[in-house]
Amino acid sequence: MNVMPLKFAELSVQQLARFHALSFIIEQKRPEYFEKKIKSLKPSIQYGDDYVEFCKNMYKVSSNRLSNEIKDKIDKKADEYMKNYLTGHKTDVKCLCHGDYRMNNILLKLTEGEITDVIPVDYQLMYYGSPIVDFLFFIFGATDKEFRRNHFVHLKDMYHETMEQYLKYFDIDIDIVYPKKKFEMDFEDNLEFGLELNLYIAPIIFTLEDDVPDFDKVDLLEVKVKLDDRYYERLQGVVDDMIEWGKL
């Protein structure tokens, strides 16, 4: 429920950049392994009737306090939003993605009360896809409007700079792998994933602690949630961002 501390975000973004860079390194240094073991990995969520209905059900809850004007705008793009969310968006540049890169899946080390190191865990949802989506999933999963206003651009730049430096250790030029201009274009083109994430999956994250659904016992289409009030403020902040960025 909390907004992540900046230091935690910086260290986590750097780790994500190195993880993605490692995929590009394997692609160049071990191409056969890359083709067989990495490029073949599919997302755990596949676009289909069940997940479309799940998204629709979550949207009924998530949009509950949005203005009619905003709901009308979202409704006009609902099919596009759901398909984009469920297929992970499209970018020409792809790599091995974590698939669930959020605060809950990152261990942190405290030294005298200060965050000094982080270690990502829980790689069971890895897939071959867009690195931008992995990054946006992390940012929009645990930040609010104020945090993004102050640190979003900084973290985006840190991600690309970290990747550039890591690739240099292996004599790989980032301008060949993921040029800054291409990265910026992909980033701009996929910003709406932040809204989709908050409409369709964040309700699960913001479910009241005593009311978390047991997915082993409940059918996907029967999942119901009761949301913490902080969710609606968080979602409105995302909506405000999308309007400011010309995405809504």
UniProtKB/TrEMBL annotation:
Q: Which Gene3D superfamilies match?
A: 3.90.1200.10
- PANTHER family, alphabetized: PROTEIN KINASE-LIKE DOMAIN-CONTAINING
Q: InterPro entries this protein is in? A: CHK_kinase-like, EcKL, Kinase-like_dom_sf
Q: What is this protein called?
A: CHK kinase-like domain-containing protein
Q: Name the source's superkingdom.
A: Eukaryota
Which residues does the UniProt record annotate as the domain CHK kinase-like? 1-169
Question: Mind giving the lineage of the organism this protein is from?
Answer: Eukaryota, Metazoa, Ecdysozoa, Arthropoda, Hexapoda
